[in-house]
Amino acid sequence: MSFEWPWQHSFPPFFTLQPNVDTRQKQLAAWCSLALTYCRHHKLYTLDVMEAQESPMFNNKKIERKLSMEAIQVVFEELRKKGNLEWLDKNKSRCLVMWRRPEEWGKLIYQWVSKNGMVNTVFTLYELSNGDDTEGEEFHGLEDWMLLRSLQALQAEGKAEIITMDDGKGVKFF
Amino acid sequence: MDRFSWSNGLLEINETLVIQQRGVRLYDGDDKAKLDVGVALLSTHRLIWRDVKNHECCIAMPLSQIIFFEEQAAGIGKRSVAKIVIHLYPVPANKEPGPYQHSKYPYIKLSFKEHGQIEFYRRLTEEMTQKRWESTSLSQPIPTGTSPQVGRKTHAVGIIGIERKIEQKRKETDKNISEAFEDLSKLMVKAKEMVELSRSIANKIKDKQGDITEDETIRFKSYLLSMGIADPVTRETHGSGTHYHLQLAKQLGDMLQAPLEERGGMMALTEVYCLVNRARGMELLSPEDLVNACKMFESLKLPLRLRVFDSGVMVVQLQSHSEEEMIASALDNVSDKGSLTAEEFAKLLGLSVLLSKERLLLAEKMGHLCRDDSVEGLRFYPNLF
């Protein structure tokens, strides 16, 4: 399924940071949602800022417009404030994109676990993210760090417990 | 060449050798002297020449004999050699015998076959400037010509003399200029006092507003304005102004109606300034006067207004001019064409680019338009966000 670009993506002013405060708010909201849907579609979990500048998301070659570095940083800051983005380094060159928040992932995983009656079973992390059983699930292929965070969120809710085993980590669902 | 005397070539007690140069041939005027090539020695007191092959043959001439000297550049070709030409005073009566009894030339030449003329020339210049022979006399009496009686200052001959004249002239000019500007700086001091005085009076007026009559105040303010001093009283109490500005405002009100209507109800203040002054021909307005007059439009209930945009641009517009209408029509225009730059908009409306940009920016501020800033320039689109 090819990615569907929102109408703003072909609108040249979309790529200029608007000075009018109200307009800017709407613009940034559109950018945030575009960034998250794009990452979700392509299953991107980390972004390198330099690469992002050249990606078709921020750079629409058809209308010859692209977001300036300054504007990209503003968009990322917005995402961070909403909880969808986390910087991996102090220089703000790489970041984690959580187009789904850990809590949301946790919920999905738990739903699958309980749907299949696998409560009180122990899983390895690998089984959850790459096992044959989970194929077709949205969280299949989830990167380890994201998976861990989602399980931590479940743990905080009391619905799971993370166990450290010899060759890695595992989790038990309650 | 008849100024030279035979010498033993030894330096005297107070005499110092400055420079010596081999390969020098002497010329009596333009003719080669009947001497061979030798060594030329320059001392603080004399010019000495010694034959290289025959050391016994040595002649000397006191430097005081020299009127002036100059370089003669070498010509083209291997044979041509650089020379120094030395012009001399007439033979003094008590000169010691030398190689020549008599010469028809008043000048000699030193020909530098082995080069070195530049340094020799430089040292000779130095010695001739310093004239060290005058301060330290030699043990042997040496005929010195007419030089010692004549004072240094009137020795205005030769290059040194010319240089001295130039220096003197420069000093005089300097003095004249500083004298002239002395008056100017005195004027500046007085002007400062004047400004202080007027400022203190203006403050006193402000304090004792009731004591002085309106008429006098206005007259005083007009004096201040005519002197070009900003009057704090007028600024604060902007209702009252000078009579001049009031009249001017009325005149502008009449004059600008037609042009404003032609231009869609708005004109930049600079355009007004040009129009008004061109129409007046004489008695031109200063920018301050124009601004002050325009500020009075509202209080005089004239149908014009002075308006200042965020960016600082000042315009005069008709009171009947409605900004909302303008913005609505701007939005229509932009939507029609999809997008517009300030220049395109200006062309469309017949406005100046400055004013059209102001209008677009205002529409953006109201949220009707959004901007697209790229390398192509600044474009405005209808705000679809």
Automatic annotation (TrEMBL), chain A:
<comment type="similarity">
    <text>Belongs to the VPS25 family.</text>
</comment>
<dbReference type="GO" id="GO:0043328">
    <property type="term" value="P:protein transport to vacuole involved in ubiquitin-dependent protein catabolic process via the multivesicular body sorting pathway"/>
</dbReference>
<dbReference type="InterPro" id="IPR008570">
    <property type="entry name" value="ESCRT-II_cplx_Vps25-sub"/>
</dbReference>
<dbReference type="GO" id="GO:0000814">
    <property type="term" value="C:ESCRT II complex"/>
</dbReference>
<dbReference type="GO" id="GO:0016236">
    <property type="term" value="P:macroautophagy"/>
</dbReference>
<dbReference type="GO" id="GO:0005198">
    <property type="term" value="F:structural molecule activity"/>
</dbReference>
<keyword id="KW-0653">Protein transport</keyword>
<keyword id="KW-0963">Cytoplasm</keyword>
<dbReference type="InterPro" id="IPR036390">
    <property type="entry name" value="WH_DNA-bd_sf"/>
</dbReference>
<dbReference type="InterPro" id="IPR036388">
    <property type="entry name" value="WH-like_DNA-bd_sf"/>
</dbReference>
<dbReference type="GO" id="GO:0042803">
    <property type="term" value="F:protein homodimerization activity"/>
</dbReference>
<protein>
    <recommendedName>
        <fullName>Vacuolar protein-sorting-associated protein 25</fullName>
    </recommendedName>
</protein>
<dbReference type="InterPro" id="IPR014041">
    <property type="entry name" value="ESCRT-II_cplx_Vps25-sub_N"/>
</dbReference>
<keyword id="KW-0813">Transport</keyword>
<dbReference type="Pfam" id="PF05871">
    <property type="entry name" value="ESCRT-II"/>
</dbReference>
Automatic annotation (TrEMBL), chain B:
<dbReference type="GO" id="GO:0031902">
    <property type="term" value="C:late endosome membrane"/>
</dbReference>
<keyword id="KW-0175">Coiled coil</keyword>
<dbReference type="InterPro" id="IPR036388">
    <property type="entry name" value="WH-like_DNA-bd_sf"/>
</dbReference>
<protein>
    <recommendedName>
        <fullName>Vacuolar protein-sorting-associated protein 36</fullName>
    </recommendedName>
</protein>
<comment type="function">
    <text>Component of the ESCRT-II complex (endosomal sorting complex required for transport II), which is required for multivesicular body (MVB) formation and sorting of endosomal cargo proteins into MVBs.</text>
</comment>
<keyword id="KW-0653">Protein transport</keyword>
<dbReference type="GO" id="GO:0043328">
    <property type="term" value="P:protein transport to vacuole involved in ubiquitin-dependent protein catabolic process via the multivesicular body sorting pathway"/>
</dbReference>
<dbReference type="InterPro" id="IPR011993">
    <property type="entry name" value="PH-like_dom_sf"/>
</dbReference>
<comment type="similarity">
    <text>Belongs to the VPS36 family.</text>
</comment>
<dbReference type="InterPro" id="IPR040608">
    <property type="entry name" value="Snf8/Vps36"/>
</dbReference>
<comment type="subunit">
    <text>Component of the endosomal sorting complex required for transport II (ESCRT-II).</text>
</comment>
<dbReference type="Pfam" id="PF11605">
    <property type="entry name" value="Vps36_ESCRT-II"/>
</dbReference>
<keyword id="KW-0813">Transport</keyword>
<dbReference type="Pfam" id="PF04157">
    <property type="entry name" value="EAP30"/>
</dbReference>
<dbReference type="InterPro" id="IPR036390">
    <property type="entry name" value="WH_DNA-bd_sf"/>
</dbReference>
<dbReference type="GO" id="GO:0032266">
    <property type="term" value="F:phosphatidylinositol-3-phosphate binding"/>
</dbReference>
<dbReference type="GO" id="GO:0043130">
    <property type="term" value="F:ubiquitin binding"/>
</dbReference>
<dbReference type="GO" id="GO:0000814">
    <property type="term" value="C:ESCRT II complex"/>
</dbReference>
<dbReference type="InterPro" id="IPR021648">
    <property type="entry name" value="GLUE_dom"/>
</dbReference>
<keyword id="KW-0967">Endosome</keyword>
<dbReference type="InterPro" id="IPR037855">
    <property type="entry name" value="Vps36"/>
</dbReference>
<keyword id="KW-0963">Cytoplasm</keyword>
